[in-house]
Amino acid sequence: MRKKIVAGNWKMNLNLGEGYTLVAEILSKLPSLSESQQVIIAPPFLHTQQTITQTQYTPFVSVASQTCHHETSGAFTGEISATMLKDAGVRYTLVGHSERRAFNSEDNALLAKKTSAALDAGIDVIFCCGESLDIRDAEQQNDYVAQQLKESLFHLDAKAMSNIVIAYEPIWAIGTGRTASAQQAQDMHQHIRSVLVAQYGQEVAQNTSILYGGSCKASNAAELFAGEDVDGGLIGGAALVADDFIGIIKAMIAAK
Ligand code: PGA
After folding, report:
1. Residue 213 CA to ligand 1 centre (angstroms)
2. N or C of the chain: less Cβ packing under 10 Å?
3. C-alpha of residue 174 to centroid of ligand 1, in Å
């Protein structure tokens, strides 16, 4: 059985006090979760230790980083390695968020290295993929996303793939208030799963959680998560407000 997941990506928002208050409020309102339901919080690096301390006794809630470096250690000023994150108690890392691709020039080849570095350190990867509006308008989104998966993930064997979560985030829907329709999300998730079937077979593909991200809110989460291949969400803006994030978690629990 694949997991249903709601992950909150805080991006570069909230100071330590604000982060503490938000996590405390989320935990106080959190419905009980089962093993097949996971809530993940991805705060800025500075919050990592505090957020881990706050969430450590809450089952099925874990902390992610928003990125990691592809090397284990060395002269990489300003960077943090996956081994350091693992040591601190981080369970997941985002890899390949479109903002990292755009603002930090992270390409598919580098993301393949980051993915391997995280898995080698014992951190599961939430691998983000998704097309720009130009690519969607040209109806090239299926090939484009398949290529992202191929170039960044397909060096992994089937065992390593079991530690990968995929987040489909159409760039045109991130932070724009414009959401993919439930049908567009389901169509792409089904496509992603079929690409995984072709590479790894049914068992791996059926066990891989595929999250939707891009202006997902409490008001549209239920509709988006109703898709057969939509296993939850990667949430930006709405993860910064406890009631909104809780509403999305409830939609995940209620789905299917
Ligand atoms: P958004 O961001 O929910 O604010 O659109 C999603 C993301 O970038 O992960």
Report:
1. 6
2. N
3. 5
Confidence class for position 176, pLDDT limits 50, 70, 90:
confident
Is residue 96 within 8 Å of 111, Cβ to Cβ?
A: yes
| 97 flagged as catalytic | yes
Q: Does 234 contact ligand 1 (Cβ within 6 A)?
A: yes
Of 97, 131, 189, 191, catalytic = 97
> Using 50, 70 and 90 to split pLDDT, how confident is the model at 185?
very high
Yes or no: say if 235 and 9 are a contact pair by the CB < 8 Å rule: yes
Q: Is the pLDDT of residue 256 over 80?
A: no
Which residues make Cβ contacts (< 8 Å) with residue 161, sequence separation at least 6? 153, 196, 200, 204, 208
Give the domain range for residue 187.
Answer: 4-254
How far apart (Å, rounded) are the C-alpha atoms in residues 177 and 216? 8
Structurally, how many domains does the chain consist of? Answer: 1
Mean pLDDT of 210-234: 97
Whose alpha carbon is nearest atom 1 of ligand 1? 236
Q: Is 169 annotated in the active site?
A: yes
Residue 7 pLDDT: 98
The response to whether residue 248 sits with its C-beta less than 6 Å from ligand 1 reads no
Q: pTM (2 decimals)?
A: 0.98
